[in-house]
Amino acid sequence: MIDLTGKTAIVTGGSRGIGKSACLLLAKAGANVAFGFRNNESAAQSVVEEIRLEGKHALAVAGDVSQRETFEQLFDQARASFGQIHIVVGNAGVWERAAIDEMTENQWQKTIDTNLKSIYYLCHFAAREMKPNQAGKIILISSTAGQRGEAFYSHYAASKGAIIAFTKSLASELGPANIRVNCVAPGWVNTDMCSEEFENDAFKQSVLQSIPLHRLPTSEEIARTVLFLASDLATHITGEILNVNGGSVLCG
């Protein structure tokens, strides 16, 4: 029912976790995919090969998402390889613990640059691509931390809360150009970003108890929501913050 044949998607942070799952699902639905990654070349090439096995084309571009040049290269290479860009997914991010009285300026800046400045660059270049075509889909990954806050991760929560406000602002701004801007807000997800925390069984059990469904989702379960928002099943949805958290944060 979801057919993205002939579409081109760009995904940031595509070599692992939610980003990888989004790349694979978009490709399975028919899209050609260009994705960014930081430095794990072998993981990125593995995703490229998995997409090619689906009979679609893939392109992996290394770079620092806090730098404008990374996005210039990503969009230029995607356009040169696949043509018009139809879908972008802003997923790249970091999550590092820091108590506010111990947090360094560098820790704050790294999180803001990676999680939020990257979203600015992605949307800046996406709007330039999509407005002349009067069509496009922008999907940004936030977090329940951006809705309820998160102790010891205030810089992360601040960046994710800003993405929610950014989504609503751009939905109003870009709607007249037929560009839909939506946000996915996951809760805890079973990815390697959280794997170290979940080595503490007591902590993991407390997390599970806070989720009414009493389980952690897979990265693919989050990516399915991305696929839905990228599809023609969601043609009248924009400015939405779609919560995928098993009921742990009930807001709408």
List the helices and strands and how they pair.
Blueprint: E1 8-11, H1 17-28, E2 32-37, H2 41-53, E3 58-62, H3 68-82, E4 87-90, H4 105-130, E5 136-141, H5 145-148, H6 154-174, E6 179-186, H7 201-209, H8 219-230, E7 241-244
Parallel strand pairs: 1-2, 1-4, 2-3, 4-5, 5-6, 6-7
Helix pairs in contact: 1-8, 3-4, 4-6
Structural class: alpha/beta
What is the CATH homology-level superfamily? NAD(P)-binding Rossmann-like Domain
> What percent strand?
5-15%
CATH topology title: Rossmann fold
**Relative helix content:** 40-55%
| DSSP helical segment count | 8
Distance between the termini: 27 Å
How would a textbook summarize the main sheet? 7 strands, parallel
On the 0 to 100 scale, the average pLDDT is: 95
Order of strands, main sheet, comes to 3-2-1-4-5-6-7
Low-confidence stretches: none
Briefly, what CATH class? Answer: Alpha Beta
Q: Using the CA coordinates, give the radius of gyration.
A: 17 Å
Number of E-type strands: 7
Q: Any idea how many domains? A: 1
As an assembly, this protein is single chain
**Overall 3D shape:** globular
Element order, helices and strands? EHEHEHEHEHHEHHE
